[in-house]
Amino acid sequence: MSELLDYQIARVHAAFVDRFGDAPEWMVRAPGRVNLIGEHTDYNEGFVFPVAIDREVVIAARRRDDRTVRLYANNLQQADTFSLEAIAEVPKAPGAPTWSNYLRGVFSVLLEAGHPLGGLELVFEGNVPLGAGLSSSAALEVATGTLLDRCFDLGLGGRAIALFGQKAENEFVGVQCGIMDQFISALGKQDHALFLDCRSLDYRNVPLHLDAADLAIAIVDSGVKRGLVDSQFNARRAECRTAVVHLAELLERPELSSLRDVDEAAFLSVAERLSDLIRRRARHVITENARVQASVEALEAGDFAAFGAQMNRSHQSLKDDYEVSTPELDRLVELAQAVPGVLGARLTGAGFGGCIVSLVARPALEAFEREVCERYQAETGRVATLLVTPAAEGVGLIEAPTQAEGLKRR
Ligand code: GLA
């Protein structure tokens, strides 16, 4: 467990005692994520390859014997209270703080599915950068789902918790996100990336061997908060649905229901009969699925250079065909790709701002910081924040402590 996390756990524990006058019964941590490759494929029933990062949300909680839920966001020092009866009727409270709706969302979808929940006192804090495309909201949803699973003995497990988290996000935040972010936060494994088939939800934790290869995962935050995400994200989903309808017709495959089932050869045979926009959107998804599979094969063969080359191609496709990049992300990627020792770089997450991810030889990290972050800053006046992360462990319980010292992960 990192020192940063130890410190955060101790702080959340202390804040809980402070606020509610007693020690918490349960503590849970859940990480954010960075996607190595496989962007905008999850909601097309395709493949993704994310890792959990060492930035997390930590929650401490204690059951109450009534139906009241009292929440406290320690970063913001804001409180919220609701009753489980009311949330069943009006889940999304118009006056509630934004952060509260992520938790309310998870309570609500679990209640709706018939799970028996009770009242709770809860304090949380997170250090996943907000609005940077590193899935702070998925971390909060998965931490909440896991906490409720344990407190009320629901027997859910990681897959179901991820699906409930996604449902909460779809219904409460209004972004029709796929399953990737919640899934990796729930089922990530230390030192592994997660190869997920977003149709069957079959997955494999693939060892990264980064230490042996002396490589690091470097994330650079462009300092541009993700903008237009809700509307543009949902627009891309609609374009993909249109692409499926047109391809089903052109390929004479009326049963076709997702871009996942179109291979490159079939696509090329009819591509010129699609409109330019729909052709490019479909081409991104179809080629990205192929890139994810090729990257995983490359990694398993120990060929990191081939893996990095796929990352570079992925960026190009997100920029030209899927059009979710920004000038800032393009510049960061360009600077990163020019540094000797960088094997690959691409935007990560939904796009429209946020971060890039690179695979960097460790000895080159200093040059990377200088040539990418400092140069970007000098050129744009924006602060580029570097985050070097291991592949972290997915959600986990922390032994409910009576003292802030001596905390152990269960
Ligand atoms: C966001 C969504 C994910 C996924 C990515 C793009 O992070 O939450 O489900 O669609 O964008 O790959």
Report on this model:
The protein has 410 residues and is α+β, with helices and mostly antiparallel strands. 43% of the residues lie in helices and 21% in strands. It has helices at 3-20, 84-89, 98-112, 136-151, 158-173, 180-187, 229-250, 264-270, 276-300, 304-320, 327-337, 365-380, and strands at 26-37, 47-63, 68-73, 78-83, 120-126, 192-197, 203-207, 215-221, 342-348, 355-361, 385-389, 396-398. Strands 1, 2, 3, 4, 5, 6, 7 and 12 form an eight-stranded mixed β-sheet that branches. Strands 9-10-8-11 form a four-stranded antiparallel β-sheet. A hairpin with a 6-residue loop joins β9 (342-348) and β10 (355-361). α7 (229-250) packs across α9. It is globular. The protein starts with a helix and ends in a 12-residue tail after the last strand.
Keywords:
globular, alpha+beta, disordered C terminus, single chain, 410 residues, four-stranded antiparallel sheet, eight-stranded mixed sheet, 43% helix, binds alpha-D-galactopyranose
Number of strands: 12
Order of helices and strands: HEEEEHHEHHHEEEHHHHHEEHEE
Task: Please give the alpha-carbon distance between the first and last residues.
Answer: 11 Å
Bound molecules: alpha-D-galactopyranose
Shape: globular
Radius of gyration equals: 21 Å
Beta-strand residue fraction: 15-25%
Portion of residues within helices: 40-55%
Helix and strand content put the structural class at alpha+beta
Main sheet summary: 8 strands, mixed
Number of helices: 12
Q: Averaged pLDDT, please?
A: 93
Low-pLDDT sequence parts: 403-410
